[in-house]
Amino acid sequence: MSVFDRIDTRRPRAAGTRTQRVLLVEDDHHDAGLVREMLRSGWGADVEIVHVEHLDRACEYLAENTVTCVLLDLTLPQVPGLDGLARLRIAAPEVPIVVLSAHRDEATAMRAVHAGAQDYLIKGRVDDSLVSRAVRYAVERKRSEAQLLHQALHDSLTELPNRSMFLDHVELALERSQRTGKRIAVLFLDLDRFKLINDSLGHRAGDRLLCLVATRLRGVTREVDMVARFGGDEFTILCDDVTGEDDAVIVADRVAEAIAAPFAIEGTEVFLTASAGIAIVGENAAGEITAEALIRDADAAMHRAKERGKSRHELFDEVMRTTAVRRLETENALHRALERGEFTVHYQPTVALDTGQVQGLEALIRWQHPDRGLIPPVDFVGLAEETGLIVPIGRWVLDEACGQLARWRALRREHGDRVPLTMAVNLSARQLLHEELCSEVAQALAVHDVPAQSLVLELTESLVVGEDERTVEAFSRLRDLGIRLAIDDFGTGYASLASLKHFPADVLKIDRAFVAGLGRDSVDTPIVAAVIGLAHELGLVAVAEGVETHRQVQVLRRLGCDYAQGHLFSRAVSPGEIDRIMVSGLSI
Ligand code: C2E
Ligand code: CA
Ligand code: CA
Known about the structure:
Radius of gyration: 36 Å
Largest sheet: 8 strands, mixed, barrel
Oligomer: single chain
Bound molecules: ligand C2E, calcium ion
Helix content: 40-55%
Distance between the termini: 112 Å
Number of strands: 21
Shape: elongated
Structural class: alpha/beta
């Protein structure tokens, strides 16, 4: 019997024909003969058996031919143990493999199955039907494995590769680029107003639209580029080997054009636009960036494009990278700041407009950063909200402020001052919806022994826009504690007047944007007058923020505003400064 028993490379590939082709890799001719006979009689005439003795030959054969299944002897003399299996799987990852083991060595056969073989047969314990059943079973099993793999790596709606496959491919492209020096580009695409369309036309139409978008994206990209559905209405495109920014911009333009043409969905024409962000890895930079970071850069550029509105695409640049890096650094530093005691609270007095007396204080957080100095809240409160860190930070501010309030109330009493002092603490949305808020507030009051009505919690107006049930509930639970609530920055958040009905507050703080124009801007004065009137009508106290001039004080007095706060009286200052103010009052 020749080594290449029945190899004829001129034969057409078996794919598409009914004939099954089994490649038998077996050095023992006697065993080979037996298997061949069993397979023939178990399967019938439509099986072609190709026998080779060497693994090298098997790999060569697989490179050129299509094979239904491989039967691999595990005891080939040239290759030890499971190495043969590993090599075959590399040579033909899509072909199912059944291993043949000696009857003493079932354990190795089991290991082969764990290492990727679809089934095993023990020599001497097989018969016709067992052999052919093993082959059929291996083919079936491989097919379902492949299907599972496909499902794991593709989006079931559009059939495009999914996020995890995209990530893998970007990783591979980066590795390749490191060797070849060729540039790669990632486009991050987000459909504009998709949610609106989805909500108004229904989810089925939304799904249909996403499929049509997927098809169009495939249509305008090269075969070598990968289009993936990254999630929701986000698509990503990987362009291998671009010459520069221009190439990537051309792709972005083609994509924009493709999406701009109307879509016919259930009898209606739907118009779409998309915002795209592009990130490119230049020569020799591939080793310095991870796949995740590259995609994140493209995502950041997409957000910039969305913000700008008019530009449909935006390139990720150095400025954006610095901002992104800075943000990440700030986030990391924020995590540590609380433990390290880097936060402080400054206090700004609120003054009664009729008497000029300090009526209360507002607690305003500051971050004493070891390298960056004193950081104002605008530079970190937003990030703290996004990351949820505002909850522990806010808890700390509340405790700190209540402690100081107790001290200053005592100090005032010592000086025979009978005016009750209040403390205002700012709350973010995240804190308001935090379950523990009420008990934490109650605890802070109890620990520092301050009456509930001397604490004011300030919530920005944007929080009370709409009548979110959870917000309304949190609001009323706080009120039940006996503390007071203020609506901050009133006039900027577009709260309807009706929403004030659902948020029974005690104080309305007029945003400093309106106060700034008092006596100067012809519109601001009537607005402030109206807000003060509204506050009084609803039984609320009005506080003007950001008062900087005597002129503003005059107008506010005339309009009947109750309290004012601003640089004219005092900036937010350290507790030591407040001690002094408590004793000797404000000098203006
Ligand atoms: P806000 O609650 O509206 O606080 C008033 C801001 O205006 C403060 O800025 C204050 O220093 C500033 N300000 C007061 N008077 C004047 C004035 O006459 N002219 C001008 N130009 N500005 C004036 P700050 O301290 O930088 O705080 C900014 C914002 O950060 C606060 O706005 C508040 O929303 C937030 N914030 C501060 N502390 C906390 C906190 O502990 N928790 C939360 N969640 N947010 C806080
Ligand atoms: Ca405030
Ligand atoms: Ca405010």
